[in-house]
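I am writing to request your help with a piece of structural work I have in hand. I set the record out below, with my sincere thanks for your time.
___
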Amino acid sequence: SSGINAEYGVMVLGVAGLTYTLLDYSIFVEALGTLSLCTEATLALPQLIKNYNTRSTEGMSVSMVMLWFFGDSVKTLYFLLRETPVQFLMCGALQIIVDILILFQVIGYGSGHRGD
């Protein structure tokens, strides 16, 4: 456990050092920002896949997914109105699509397990 924490700490410091060193290079900053946006946009994909594989949304509620959808929709609208770079809009749209798919799963599967 402490070995994993030490490795994580070294990794974080390494990435921070690399970032500090390359901050003057716009291509690096743009790539880092895009990677960050894509990572955030795909956070719910493992849940979507798990729901599909188990045919269950146990522990998920319609209201929770509706709040995800509302938050992602408002955020994407903000990106649109502020004329942010296209990667913000694309990632926001991906989040909204995943939210809708999970919402359909929660409604369709319910909270129980349905056969394999």
Notes: The helical segments are 2-22, 26-41, 45-54, 62-81, 86-109. Residues 86-109 form the longest helix (24 residues).
